[in-house]
Amino acid sequence: MTTATDRTAPRRAALGALLAAGLLAACSSVPPPGGRSGPALPGAPPTPGGAAPSTPALGFLSRINVPAGHRPALRLTARGVQVFRCEARGNDSQWVFRVPEADLADDSGKVVARHGADFSFEHSDGSRLIGKVASFDEAPSRDDLRWLLLTTTSYGQGSFAGVRFVQRTHTKGGMPPASCAARERNQLLRVPFTAEFMFYKPG
Question: In this prediction, what percent of the chain has a pLDDT beyond 90?
Fold first, then answer.
């Protein structure tokens, strides 16, 4: 005679096999600790490399805040010199600013642009900017260049296309002595400096 226990045994075995298969499938979908993960899920946050640069921290009363409606598009670090010329000013002689000369590097340290006369910027991709000083803040130290807000006109297509404002912040160095001697008139002085430049576009 076949008992109830005998009739349910095959069903239990089949159910156990199904459960085991389900557990194996679930385990195989869990990424190993510290290993590579699968494709990002919809709505996952973007990778840090795609994030826009953060704006510099400025005081509420700063005169170099960028007008509303503009976003930071590019941040470059400058390293170069400020060029001054000894000129007569009344009965004295002073170092008068003539032109900046600097390389501008991206966050990886690669030089991608040059900063020169007329507060100009020329990118390696061919795009250019001509700037004009709109306002300034004094630097935290008298030995450092002022922090500036520039209005700009862009030319060409590339990284600088559409840039309307540039901030120069976090300056180090670049300031000449308070005066020069009469014998130094017409001589040039190159003072090393570093700074951070933030480029803003509408948006």
Answer: 68
Distance between CA 29 and CA 59 in Å, rounded?
50
- For residue 176, give the nearest of 145, 151, 152 by alpha carbon: 145
pLDDT in tens, 48-77: 345 678 888 898 889 999 999 999 999 999
The DSSP annotation for the chain comes to ---HHHHHHHHHHHHHHHHHHHHHHHHHTSPPTTS---SPPTTPPPPGGGSPPPPPP--TT-TTPPPTTEEEEEEEEEEEEEEEEEEEETTEEEEEEEEEEEEEE-TTS-EEEEEEGGGEEEETTS-EEEEEEEEEE--SSTTBPPEEEEEEEEESSSTTTT--EEEEEEEEEBPPPS---GGGTT-EEEEEEEEEEEEEEE-
Distance CA 187, CA 167 (A): 30
Single out the residue of 135, 150, 132, 156 nearest to residue 199, CA to CA: 150
> Closest Cα to residue 151, out of 130, 123, 127, 126?
130
- pLDDT value for 51: 67
Question: Which amino acid, residue 118?
Answer: D
